[in-house]
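Need the bound structure for magnesium ion, inputs here:
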Amino acid sequence: MDQGQGLRVLMNGSGPPQPAVGAHQGLRVFALVSGKGGVGKTNIAANLALLLSQRGRRVLLVDADLGLANVDIVMGLTTRFTLFDAISGRVALEDILVEGPGGVVVLPAASGIYEMTCLDDTQRYAILHQIDALESRFDTVLIDNSAGISRDVQFFAGAAREVAVVTDPEPTAITDAYATIKILCQRRVHRHFHLLVNNTSSEEDGREVYRKLTTVTGRFLDVSISLLGSIPHDENLNRAVMARRPLVELFPGSPASLSLTRLAERFLALPPPAGQDGGMKMFWERLLRNPGSVAEGGEG
Ligand SMILES: Nc1ncnc2c1ncn2[C@@H]1O[C@H](COP(=O)(O)OP(=O)(O)OP(=O)(O)O)[C@@H](O)[C@H]1O
Ligand SMILES: [Mg+2]
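Answer from helper R.:
Posting the output first, comments after.
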């Protein structure tokens, strides 16, 4: 399927959108971040996107870490254009979107987004004008970020209303997760964080990581953290990556798939974040406004 075809399928109503289910019917914009690299953000984002889509959410998966093996690989997609092409006016925004498995729509962003969004008012207006067409098409946006806390990550995390920090049980990963939370908190991007612990050996392992992290944040940072879930180490995930298929599609009964399914159910039951729900347009305005103001963004 070509780039624009995916979206056109959705626009023509022949795609999978169904009535959204879940506790909250408004737009949820959820960024996955980590300190350390390779802790599982992309696989979690792609599989969660698919599970939510299967449950009736209309999901836009933003690949904010294009360039390395990421969403496109995990979902078996070929992407030709990125957000950069849309912002520079070469391609219509809707034509950069690609339809992935299960009706998930992927928006290939690009690294260097922070610099490229230093737009003048005319450029910003031109792109926001196109956003109108997406307004009613999605109710869930998941943003898969690169590791660490670059300006790009702060940029996307600032545009999201909710953030999930992904870590594994390794001490270095927990330390790096703490550093990421500290920066997002100090720059007043976010004060509440969801925690996802990946590659665990047991549920207790995940709770132990949560205890370790919150013991330190409780002493030094004014943040609240909730444990959203843990996902066990599962060799099937490597097999799925090799096959370029989402784990939950290829091995739906595997231990990590079952945990991801519980995670999706928990996600759907989450209460909406405090503050106004600005909808898709508000999200894009936040994304495309003067990057200098990103640090003031965040919850609500
Ligand atoms: N639960 C798991 N069980 C087994 N292997 C896993 C698990 N989670 C991740 N991995 C392995 O770690 C690799 C990296 O995962 P992934 O690409 O999702 O991490 P990432 O956080 O997105 O990395 P990056 O920071 O580079 O973007 C996977 O390809 C897989 O081999
Ligand atoms: Mg990744």
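Comments: Residues 1-24, 290-300 have pLDDT under 50 and may be disordered. The longest strand covers residues 192-200.
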